[in-house]
Amino acid sequence: MAEILIKNGFVIDPSRKINGDVMDIAIKDDKIVDKVGSGAKVIDAKGKVVMAGAVDVHAHVAGPKVNAGRLMRPEDKLFKSPDAQEHYRMEMGFSIPSTFKTGYDYARMGYAFVMEAAMPPLHSPHVHEEIHDTPIIDEAALPVFANNWFVMEYLKNNEIENAAAYVAWIINATKGYGIKLVNPGGTAAWAWGLNCLGINDPVPYYDITPAEIITGLIKTNEYLGLPHSVHIHQNSLGDPGNYTVTLDSLKLAEGVKAKNKFGRDTVMHSTHIQFHSYGGDSWANFESKAKEVMDYVNSQKNITVDLGCVTLDETTTMTADGPFEHHLNNLNHLKWANVDVELETAAGVVPYVYDKNIKVCGIQWAIGLELGLYAKDPMRTFITTDHPNAGPFIRYPRIIKWLMSQKAREATLASFKYTDKVIDATNIHGIDRELTLYEVAQMTRNGPAKSLGLSHMYGGLGAGLDANVGVFNLDPKNMPSDPEMIEKALLRAAWFIKSGQIVVKDGEITNHGNKRTVWVNAKVKENPQVMRDINEKFLKNYTVAIGNYPVWDSLAPNPLVIDIDVEA
Amino acid sequence: MATITLKPFKTPELIIECNNITPDAFAGKTPAEIAELEIFEGKVREKLGDFFSVTGSSGNTAAETDILIDGDCSRVKYLGSKMTVGTITVNGNADMYVGGWMKGGKIHVKGNVDSFCGIAMEGGEIEVDGNAGNYVGCAYRGDWRGMRGGTIHIHGSAGNDIGTFMLGGTIIIDKNAFIHVSTHAEGGTVVIKGDVEGRVGGQMVKGDIYVFGNVQYMLPGFKEIDRVQKEIAGESATFRHYIGDLGERHPKSKGKEIYANLYVKASA
Amino acid sequence: MPKLITGVGCPYCGSSCDDIECLVSDDGKKILETRNACVIGNEIFHHVSSPDRPTKPRMRQADGSMKEVSYDEAVDFTAKALIKAKKPLIYGFGSTNCEGMSAVARVAERAGAVLDNCASICHGPSFLAIFDNGYPSCTLGEVKNRADVVVFWGCNPMHAHPRHTSRYSIFPRGFFTTKGQMQRTIISIDPRETDTAKLADYHFMLNQGHDYELFDAFRTVLRGHDIPAEVAGCKREMIIEAAEKMRNARFVMIFFGMGCTHTDGRNHNVDIAISLTRDLNTHTKSSIMAMRGHYNIAGPGQVWSWQFGFPYCIDLSKGTRAHMNPGETSSVDLAMRDEVDCFVNVGTDAGAHWPIAAIKHVKKHPFIAVDPNICMASEISDLHVPVRVVGVEEAGVVYRMDNVPIQFKKVIDGPEGVPSDEEFFDRVYTRMCELTQTEPMWIPAKGHAKASSTSEH
């Protein structure tokens, strides 16, 4: 390790309210420091923008359903994979890239941290095997809970303490990070081929509703004081008219206060909200309700969202929302993979082509961007594509281009086959807001780091933070008139320093870095009842031995463990 | 028009992959430049000129370029793959992927071709005087977009998996086929002049199949509905008309389900 | 005092049972007794202590005899053979851990090799079907807890997966299946009256090779259309009755085996089975699963999918991109067409499983067998490299037939000086880098000191 000085760049660091000042950033070993010695390696960033390593709050990058997508889609590789860099691993796949390509491409875009958004606990060793094989970037994974037998049993009886003991056991056993909810109750219903489309639909057999699961898990999360809030994929994803369900479930967070020691002041992260902001009651009168949803989000300070923008690509949808994928498969008739996971969850995978010549796809594209443009608080609104569901993560720079340039938006809108119909069903046409790089930095760096309870390590350039610094070929004082240049600059960093190591230069990988697995070690008071329940279920209903369930330490050889001690 | 003649003079130790033998790649190049084009034998990069003598001249454009391969290409893959225009004639056999992902032009192989001939073809014409292996006009693994256009005419017999996931275009097999014709197809036409063992039109959504010979095992999902007089591939005949695969999903048009059609020549 | 180790994974069949108990000698070197394992699994645990077990590599000499050599010599020979070959083929992986598969993948990428696994001659057609049609499946616990109609199509677990029916599929009492076997309707579809067929409520003794027609008949009936009086030798009435059973079930599970993948149509037999599963999901809940043969043969399909995007038949010869097209890049096809010029057999026995003609082709070139045991491949090889036995002497992650990862622990120490597959191939990789004067490209290695079970809960 050594010292690096990034000189004379235009620094954008919302964590310290710095907006384009010409400054130096000093790095010693793996941390940002106030100053370094004269022997430091100097990187000339004159005329370039300097930002913290970006933080992805939600992407599907590792684990069984991602790999099911890779496995079942050879056509996602054919003629769509770039040539490998000499002496680096091959980079196969477009919408569901190999683990190597995932790490390399995130690094090339200056990303330091990525949250794998859905980890089935039973498959957690698999998730960690893939995280291990994803170079450079730090990663964590959120175990899914909202359709778990134990959780539904405890929450049905309002046993928050027991739910918390169980959640803590799973987070520890899976080396997980927090609480993910996917289609609460609906995925459990899917085990019998059913679904819960509203938050008050009872879950078959369990005598609980999605609303009760959501409320219970929010309480559990704050009881434990986890770094991140609950992270929810709501019911009725992708259905026309679902925005009412979205608003209903967002309202469950009203009045709840965050309790944690990580500087997080939100209690619910509502993910890929684009898929949940639909009006109309059929695909014929399908329309945007982005304004209605975002107005509510703007008014509620304890909620964060990420966009889930449609990128108009051929991609691969994958979610623990098993019934949704079955439904989607009935619409597009392409291949369909599904995995129901005993006692815990399910997942589905279906390829999908967001064709700009299809009206609905154009409307979905507009909704994602509208949400970003209506957002009043960029610290609570994050840029994602729900990778790979609405498009691959390598399109983030394209989303940013659209958000930063009305010209770029209008050009894309004009290229649609049904431009007029898309305009009729949305508000995108004529929105003249253009986000600034400062706002983009809030939405991709400072904001998500805070929501994840990680702002003491990521998302800023203050001394003491992890030395994750990107340098991009953009001049914030003199932004290019051609919006394509924004995308180009953000897709391939001029420099990216990850944990103090130069891993990217001129958009090319130069080092495999020192990737870390971030996980939470939650200590709770011993709970004999919950342990008895767990042991019994392993004996009677699981098909693996309890002793073989917890992820070995050796699978996460470079851990960054966040300790939590719950004094109850 | 100008003709480049390739004459194979060396048999590869393994097999060579020649993505570059197309009018598109040859156009505007001298024989010496063509001989420098890269080919692969396993992981070893070699040159076209290491295996073929190159004579004649190419046209200024691919459309003006004809390629004659005067000899056997049994161990040469990817002849004419992705070509868009011009012609290739092979005086002998050819290995896998003849005319794969082809968009236009014409390929004539005077011997046999191995598997994956015309895989994911979009346009143009492939004519094979001999037999074809398996997967004539099929889709690449996993792709639901198989052959979309063009014509493949095999004068001999073909193996299994003809026109899998076919969406358009025409495949004509003059002699027999083994099993699996137009599996998963949603369009296109396959004509088998000889016999087929079975599995004709399995999981087929839309499209047409004509069989002049015998289908040894009919699928239970095909139902005979009438007899029709049809002219296809230069022959007119009376056919028993089946619809199917009744086990598969089918789109609706004006409230009526659209089925795939199987026409089997009625015995006299 | 002998020590009892519980929760041991069994390195035999795709059921990957992890409830084996081993009584280990004082010195931790010998397994005295096993509990819970089937007869075959039991044999594997005892076999490791066999006095005939090779513990040194052996290299073929000019006179045809085999001579013991050092591991360094074996590493050097393997590295040089892989570098020299224009297109080496590395095949096998029926019996190793994912760590080993990963190490070999790195070697294969550097060597420009074709990387393939036993699925190529086994459930490869199932992969082709998954590529074309997807895979609506579940974990085995779902079968145990929910399934009330279980179909065994072209498979005979009573012989091939001895504890499958008791742990997962026929007999166990699950959460919603408290009456166990009484609550399940078993349908066997097999041209032979196997021991599994004897347990079944319905046995369709179909004409061999006509599975596709019978699947099509089920689908046609489920869509309300008529079928001929007899399909594939099975009576219409019986087909309709079984189709009704499935439609009215709460959870239909379809297990399929090599009876589907090794008869005419191969991948399409599985392909249409997947279509049937999809159809059934419009009426009820249904899942499908391949009866994978080995305890970790699902492993390479997972590891290589995340590393290269393909589960098998991966041609890495171009160095820059991987290519896969079974029928071309599949091991036996490559061998029969003389497309490869070096063969490395890892954790399987190509000598026993491949067509003799294919073996004769690869025997023209360097032939290396990496396997703990003497087998046909080792005996015809130019170099045999013995390694530790995964699941007994070496820990590691394995994937069960339902793709559930299971962390297999180590039970006893392996013979002194004998490396694991992973260690051997990491040494080959390092040697290749030395010989070609290139920098090794490591992803930080997993901790090698794998605890037998970690967290205490």
Explain the layout of strands and helices.
The complex is a heterotrimer of chains A (568), B (268) and C (457).
Chain A (H helix, E strand, L loop, with lengths): L2 E11 L4 E11 L2 E3 L7 E4 L4 E4 L1 E6 L4 H9 L26 H10 L2 E9 L4 H9 L5 E6 L5 H8 L3 H15 L5 E3 L3 H5 L19 H15 L5 E4 L9 H8 L17 E3 L7 E2 L7 E2 L1 H10 L3 E4 L7 E6 L2 H11 L3 E6 L3 E9 L5 H16 L6 E2 L13 H9 L1 H9 L4 H7 L11 H15 L17 E4 L11 H8 L3 E4 L2 E5 L2 E2 L7 E7 L4 H13 L18 E7 L3
Parallel strand pairs in A: 1-4, 1-5, 6-7, 7-8, 9-10, 10-11, 11-14, 14-18, 23-24
Antiparallel strand pairs in A: 1-2, 2-3, 5-19, 12-13, 15-17, 16-17, 19-20, 20-21, 21-22
Chain B lengths: L1 E7 L7 E2 L5 H4 L4 H5 L2 E4 L2 E4 L4 E5 L8 E5 L6 E2 L9 E4 L15 E4 L15 E4 L22 E4 L15 E4 L3 E5 L4 E7 L3 E5 L5 E6 L3 E3 L5 E10 L2 E10 L7 E2 L2 E2 L2 E6 L3
Parallel strand pairs in B: 1-6, 2-7, 6-8, 8-9, 9-10, 10-11, 11-12, 12-14, 13-15, 14-16, 15-17, 16-22
Antiparallel strand pairs in B: 1-5, 3-4, 18-19, 19-22, 20-21
Chain C lengths: L2 E6 L11 E5 L6 E5 L3 H9 L10 E3 L5 E3 L2 H14 L3 E5 L5 H14 L2 E4 L6 H10 E5 L1 H7 L2 E5 L3 H4 L3 H6 L15 E5 L5 H5 L2 E3 L6 H12 L7 E2 L2 E2 H12 L3 E6 L1 H4 L5 H14 L4 E6 L7 H11 L5 E2 L7 E2 L6 H6 L5 E5 L3 H4 L2 H7 L4 E4 L5 H5 L2 E3 L10 E4 L5 E4 L12 H16 L21
Parallel strand pairs in C: 6-7, 6-18, 9-10, 9-14, 10-11, 14-15, 18-19, 19-20
Antiparallel strand pairs in C: 1-2, 2-3, 4-5, 4-20, 7-16, 12-13, 16-17, 21-22
Proportion of residues in β-strands of chain A = 15-25%
The CATH C-level name of chain A is Alpha Beta
Strand order of the largest sheet of chain B: 5-1-6-8-9-10-11-12-14-16-22-19-18
User: Helix amount of chain A, in percent?
Assistant: 25-40%
SSE topology string of chain B: EEHHEEEEEEEEEEEEEEEEEEEE
First-to-last CA distance of chain B: 48 Å
Biggest β-sheet of chain B: count, sense, barrel? 13 strands, mixed
Say what oligomer this is: heterotrimer
Mean pLDDT of chain B: 97
Largest interface: A-C, 79 and 79 residues
Radius of gyration of chain A: 22 Å
Overall morphology of chain A? globular
**Number of DSSP strand runs of chain B:** 22
The amount of beta strand of chain B, in percent, is: 35-45%
User: What is the radius of gyration of chain B computed over CA atoms, rounded to a whole number of angstroms?
Assistant: 20 Å
Output mean pLDDT of chain A. Answer: 97
SS elements, strand count of chain A: 24
The chain-level structural class of chain B is: mainly beta
- The domain tally of chain B reads 2
